[in-house]
Amino acid sequence: MSPLFTAFLLLAAMASAAPLRPEFYFRTCPEAELIVRKVMRKAMIREPRSVASVMRFQFHDCFVNGCDASVLLDDTSTMLGEKLALSNINSLRSYEVIDEIKEKLEKVCPGTVSCADIIVMAARDAVALVTIDHAGSHTGGPDWKVKLGRQDSLTASQEDSNNIMPSPRANASLLIDLFARFNLSIKDLVALSGSHSIGQARCFSIVFRLYNQSGTGKPDPTIEPRYRQKLNELCPLGGDGNVTGDLDATPTTFDNVYFEDLVAGRGFLNSDQTLFTFPQTSEYVRLFSKDQHAFFKAFVEGMIKMGDLQSGRPGEIRTNCRVVNSRRPVDVHFES
Questions:
Q1: Which one, of 148, 141, 176, lies nearest residue 300 by Cα?
Q2: Whose CA, among 103, 204, 266, 309, lies 20 to 30 Å from 19?
C-alpha cells in the first residue's frame, strides 16, 4: 500500500471513527493512568534509555495504519509484523516495559485498556518524567491530558512500515511531504523531531554522513569539525555499527538542547541536521533553540495530533500486547 493512499485512509477514518477523549477509563479503570506512570517511573530508574525508546513507540505505531499497537505484535507463521521493519529492527526496544504495564492493568482491569492507549499514555509519561529546567530542578516536564479510547489492531504489516517510515538518511523535504500526508504541519515535524532530545542512535545510521555523504566519498560538510572528530572516534569506518551515540548533549533530559545542537552543527542523524539546513524548517529550529517553552507547547500539540490517527479497521482489546486474542476479526464496542 502506498504511503499516500495509507494517509488518505487514515484521515478518512479519523472523520468517521468513534471520538477519542481524555479520562476515557474514568469509570471502567480509574487507576489506568496512575499504573502506567508508576511502571514508567520504575523503568526509568532501572534503565534511563528505556524511556526514550518507549516515547518513540507512538511515532512508529501511529504512522503505520494509525495508533493501533500494530508495532507491538510478534511475527506469526502467516504474518510478518513491524518489529523487524527497516526503521525498527535493532532500533526500537523496551517492549518489555509495555508488557509490564499491560500485565499490571490486566490484573486490575482485565480486558479493558487497549495496548494502543498504553503506548500513548507511556509516551506522554516518558516526556513528563525526564524533563529538567535550566536550574537543574525536575519540573515535571511538558505534561498533557491524552485522549483515549483506541482499539488494538488484529494484524500488522512489515511492508507498510517499510514503505512509510523515514530513513535516518531522509532530508527535510522528504519529511515535510511525509508529515503533510498525515495532516501534520512543518511546525509539527520540527517539534516532534525534538523527541530526539533524549536517547541514542547507532553508528550504522550515520557512517554514510561521516565518510560518504551523498556518494562524495567525503563527510557531511554541515557537521561541526570538532563534533565530527568525536563521531569519527565513536564510529570508525569498518567499525561496529551497533555502537550507540547520544542524540544530543543531554540525552537523559527532555529539553531544547537538541535544537541548540542543530544550530551548532552537532546533529547526530542526517534527518535531524537537515532540519536546520533546510529553509522551511530552520526557522522553527532557531525558535525552539531559543525558547524551550515554545518547543514544549508545539511538541504537545504535535503528539496530540499524531495520537488522533486511526485506521477505522475492526479491532479488539488485546490481553497480551504481543498477540491478537483471536484470528477472527471482531468489532469491539467500548463502554465507559
A1: 141
A2: 103
**Angstrom distances, CA of residue 142 to CA of 2, 109, 169:** 34, 28, 29
> End-to-end CA distance of the chain, in Å?
35
Burial letters 179-210, b for 16+ CB under 10 A, else e: bebbebbbbbbbbbbbbbbbbbbbbbbbbbbb
One DSSP character per residue, 157-202 reads: -HHHHHHHSPPTT--HHHHHHHHHHTT--HHHHHHHHGGGGS-EEE
Tell me the pLDDT of the chain (336 aa) as tens digits.
Answer: 555 555 545 554 454 467 899 999 999 999 999 999 999 999 988 988 888 889 999 999 999 999 999 999 999 999 999 999 998 888 888 999 999 999 999 999 999 999 999 999 999 999 998 874 444 455 556 899 999 999 999 999 999 999 999 988 899 999 999 999 999 999 999 999 999 999 999 999 999 999 999 899 999 999 999 999 999 999 999 999 999 999 999 998 999 999 999 999 999 999 999 999 999 999 999 999 999 999 999 999 999 999 999 988 999 999 999 999 975 444 444 443
User: What SS3 state is found at 65?
Assistant: coil
> Nearest 10 degrees: CA dihedral of 166, 36, 68, 99?
90
User: In angstroms, rounded to a whole number, what is the distance separating the alpha carbons of residues 259 and 256?
Assistant: 5
Count CB atoms within 10 A of the CB of residue 30. 12
Catalytic residue among 60, 134, 196, 293: 60
* 148 strand-pairing partners: 21
d(CA 150, CA 19) in angstroms, rounded, equals: 9
Do strands 244-246 and 200-202 pair parallel, antiparallel, or not at all (unpaired)? antiparallel
The strand pairing partners of 200, in sequence order, are 246
60 assigned to active site: yes
